[in-house]
């Protein structure tokens, strides 16, 4: 298979998105020294609308659509996304060509004054951009005040440093990738805050007809991460998941076994259902469907119907 001699990567303009795209660019340059790999930085609606929660303006697909348009128009050959931002159903003609090895998938507790969630006094204000995190916080820590927090990573940290929140919850992966791991006071266990489907992993999207791009991306794929993310996305897809729903799914691969856990919650945290399944890692979508069925059996549909 002939590899292209030039690859253009579509990316968002935020510092974290650029880090992710540059990481993929450098990996491709290392694999294919004769290939010119360049970035096309674009602004997305999700980046531009910062005064409204993602759930109210259409979800995380707002971070993806402009990049897909660049692929469709031939202005870019591939797009790099945080896997948790990729809608569960891709448009016709698009595919994911590689899932890269996962960074820490957990949520991080960031505060200038406190060491952990358990150390926060009643009435402390915690900021988060995610209904999933918000629901789990409200369920486990009803004495805390949970506020919506939008903006890129630097903007969120600046709001914390200005004293607008006592603590904020962010993805550990983003902080570590930007060299901000020292800002993490503690990492939340998956029992405290089950991660979003795909959290901590990078996904590379391309036009399915581009077999040359598919061949070039194959070497970047990390099989264990791919299997875990496929299982997680299958749970979310089966339950109609988007960031408009407080839904979590997290899988771990050990040898030929995949362990998958998930939850569905009401935003106020008053209703929450959890389930776990395990099975052969070679059948991630089947496991995802099985877990979705377990969650439904416990009342997930009732919780989700109340949100629509």
What does this structure look like?
The protein has 308 residues and is α/β, with parallel strands linked by helices. The protein folds into three domains: 6-102 and 201-221, Periplasmic binding protein-like II (D-Maltodextrin-Binding Protein, domain 2), CATH 3.40.190; 107-187, D-Maltodextrin-Binding Protein, domain 2, CATH 3.40.190; 235-305, Porphobilinogen deaminase, C-terminal domain (Double Stranded RNA Binding Domain). It is built from eleven helices and 13 strands. The protein has helices at 15-31, 45-48, 54-57, 65-72, 131-140, 153-161, 172-177, 211-217, 223-238, 284-297, 300-305, and strands at residues 6-12, 36-42, 78-82, 94-99, 107-110, 125-128, 145-148, 167-171, 184-187, 202-207, 247-254, 257-265, 272-280. Strands 2-1-3-10-4 form a five-stranded mixed β-sheet, with helices on both faces. The relative contact order is 0.15.
């Amino acid at each position: 298979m002939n590899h292209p001699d030039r690859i253009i990567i579509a990316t968002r303009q935020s510092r974290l998105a650029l880090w992710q795209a540059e990481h993929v660019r450098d990996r491709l340059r290392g694999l294919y020294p004769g290939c010119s790999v360049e970035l096309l930085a674009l602004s997305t609606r999700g980046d531009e609308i910062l005064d409204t929660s993602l759930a109210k303006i259409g979800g995380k697909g707002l971070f993806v659509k402009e990049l897909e348009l660049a692929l469709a128009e031939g202005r870019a050959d591939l797009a790099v996304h945080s896997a948790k931002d990729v809608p569960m159903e891709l448009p016709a003609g698009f595919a994911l060509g590689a899932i890269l090895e996962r960074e820490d998938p957990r949520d991080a507790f960031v505060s200038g004054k406190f060491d952990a969630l358990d150390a926060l006094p009643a009435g402390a204000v915690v900021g988060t951009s995610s209904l999933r995190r918000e629901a789990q916080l409200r369920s486990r820590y009803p004495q805390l005040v949970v506020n919506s927090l939008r903006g890129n990573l630097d903007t969120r940290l600046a709001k914390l440093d200005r004293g607008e929140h006592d603590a904020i919850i962010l993805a550990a992966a983003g902080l570590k990738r930007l060299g901000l791991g020292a800002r993490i006071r503690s990492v939340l266990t998956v029992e405290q805050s089950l991660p979003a489907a795909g959290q901590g992993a990078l996904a590379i999207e391309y036009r399915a007809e581009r077999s040359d791009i598919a061949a070039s991306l194959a070497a970047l794929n990390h099989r264990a991460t791919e299997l875990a993310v496929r299982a997680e996305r299958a749970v979310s897809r089966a339950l109609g998941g988007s960031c408009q729903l407080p839904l979590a799914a997290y899988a771990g691969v050990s040898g030929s076994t995949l362990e998958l856990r998930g939850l569905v919650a009401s935003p106020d945290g008053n209703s929450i259902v959890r389930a776990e399944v395990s099975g052969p890692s070679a059948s991630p979508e089947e496991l995802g469907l099985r877990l979705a069925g377990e969650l439904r059996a416990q009342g997930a549909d009732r919780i989700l119907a109340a949100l629509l």
